[in-house]
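A quick aside before the break. I want you to see a complete sequence-to-structure record at least once, exactly as it would be stored in a machine-readable document. Don't worry about memorizing anything.
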Amino acid sequence: MTEDPIAGLLHLFYKRYGVLQCLCDGETDKRTVEASVDASRPTIDRSFRELEERGILASEGTSHELTNFGVPCCREFQRVDATLRTLTDLEELLSYLPRDAGFDARLLEGADVHYAEEHAPQEPFARVVDVVRGADEIAGYS
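That is the input. The structure line, written in tokens, reads:
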């Protein structure tokens, strides 16, 4: 049975999450990646080899760089990672929306989550005012 290439790529992203974060942030030095993800050198070597085999990373000697396939993969990896982080931060708040609210997760791209502090309950609204002041178009949920 042949592996689904998308499932394989998603599995690789999950399995090599920390290494991909480093590579997508522009760090391609194995020693630096090893220190950043707190993994052994053999694990880093194996990670780089798997990413090479999948076509995300190209290596020549001790030099490594993202491929033309790897660059957009990193962009999507970072976008999905950021959206999932925001969704996770908003999980409790989203539970209050009706299921048929038609929530569009694209609204969360580039979003920041701000909760009011007891001593400054209006602070999140001040941030909204700052954003709205320079906006041409606004979409949101309340």
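Two observations worth writing down. DSSP finds six helices and two strands in the chain. The beta strands are 57-60, 63-66. We'll return to this after the break.
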